[in-house]
Amino acid sequence: MCGIVAYVGHREAYPIIIKGLKRLEYRGYDSAGVALLNDGLNVYKKKGKVKDLEDTLTEANLTSTIGIGHTRWATHGEPNDKNAHPHYSSNEKLAIIHNGIIENYDSIKKNLIKKGHVFYSDTDSEVFIHFIEDIQKNTGCLLEEAVRLAMKEVVGAYAIVIMDATNPSQLIAARKGSPLVIGVGEGEFFFASDATPIIEYTNEVIYLNDYELAVVRDGELTVKNIDNILQSPYVQTLELELEAIEKGGFEHFMLKEIYEQPRSVADCMRGRVNADSGHLVLGGLRDYIDKLAKTKRIVIVACGTSWHAGLVGEYIFEELARINVEVEYASEFRYRNPIIKEGDFVIAISQSGETADTLAAIELAKSKGATIIGVCNVVGASIPRASHAGAYTHAGPEIGVASTKAFTAQVTVLALMAIAVARKKGTLHEDTFRRLLFELERIPSKIEKVLQADEKIKVIAEQFKDARNFIYLGRGYNFPVALEGALKLKEISYIHAEGYPAAEMKHGPIALIDEEMPVVFIATKDSSYEKVVSNIQEVKARKGKVIAIVTEGDKLIPTMADYTIEIPAAHDALIPLLATIPLQLLSYHIAVLRGCNVDQPRNLAKSVTVE
């Protein structure tokens, strides 16, 4: 969950690294550091944001054409200067940056202490570089060989880049379980946790695979696997535009990404859907659609917001395709000996495509004979490469830590998959199929209409910015929306919030209702409408404050609720694509009014690449 940047070439390294760290700060922002090679191997690091580090270096000699940088999300050791990366080896001739967790670091550390090694931090990363140094010292091998031998011994996940004071043209990188991208330029190379720091300089990249080791020396790149066999890496051309990772005039990335949803949802459907011709094709599933239509069981694995999208997917698949679907937390899936059989399909959902728990769930499911379908946003990420087939969401980069457009993009792709499978299976009448396609094509313009309520939502946020608790309630397709709304509020405003099925309110949560409790109802005109109306009346009878998301033109609920926000009518299965937008805006405005760091909420990082 940390951010890695490194450069070697003919340019000044420091400006590239510091700009790259700022672009990766969504991956971790409790400390930052750089190492440069000039008159020795010099490490500069500081607790806090990248700007705090930058402010301390105004007098430092930063001239160098090689360097490594890191922005940290703490795992081993609290956030402070000494635990910040990079870390030196014992002789201070080597420096490392590391994303991941070394699970057996303690036993390695104890053995190294017996040999006289002294450690200055509480991190597993410092142990890693001392271990590499110890191997090199005891065997007399080259540094790259010492790294390879260390890779065979350490247990856990890592993406590392290492500098060597004795070799000013060399960087060594390796990965297992944590992402690492290599940008290929003219006589220069860029290393990063994702492509955002690289795209300004080159769109030619290599995604390093697990157990691979990359060495740049004297302007040449070689890649070997853990068995020391030379690899032929695939150089991929990125389609990412630099403008996509800038704020574009918005105050926060989160607000920009909320407003990008008409386009991102449309991009999910571009080339896949044409309602006029009855065209629906998911190219990434072409070879598996028949098998998927015949399966008896689908298991969806995901974490956080992606898990909520998976719940919506469960409802759509079961209603339209009549296939049994189970939605599992990927973080729990691998630890409970799940029942997976050949013929089962596992749909793995992840915005980044690097979520460690989801990757582990995939490997377990594959070992039991399941077919894996990946739903991801980042082309070339680990989950798409580990899947048998899949579909990219094409939402574009999402920099805000709290996911917004990722959710609606994932729901859109899951809806397309379910509709395609239902049509193939014969459980969807042709008229309904065409109507769903037409409805899908109208969703982007309907989201634009929902966004017009922004000023009204800001006024509502002002009324509730000091609340200590929220309850979110919805039925059917709107229950996952309630969960997602509560999560957004928790993530960025630090207000305690819980989402429940509205029908469950009387089974416990109603005890919390009083005149200080805001209750958000997703109360659109669907098959559960009358029941939700009754739930609202029960809350109002107990003096609860009701904020209701209602269908445009609703005359009844506005007479009961304290505040209402209208959304256009849509098919029940597609309502989550509209109903979640006001909840994103409500959370955003409450967080801003409370003075919270919206894009970088405390204790969170964007891509959870460690367990």
UniProtKB/TrEMBL annotation:
Give the matching Gene3D superfamilies: Glucose-6-phosphate isomerase like protein, domain 1 (3.40.50.10490), Glutamine Phosphoribosylpyrophosphate, subunit 1, domain 1 (3.60.20.10)
Name its cellular compartments: Cytoplasm
Q: Which residues form the SIS domain?
A: 288-427, 460-601
The answer to whether keyword Cytoplasm applies is yes
Q: What is its EC number?
A: 2.6.1.16
Q: Which HAMAP family match?
A: GlmS
Q: What is this protein called?
A: Glutamine--fructose-6-phosphate aminotransferase [isomerizing]
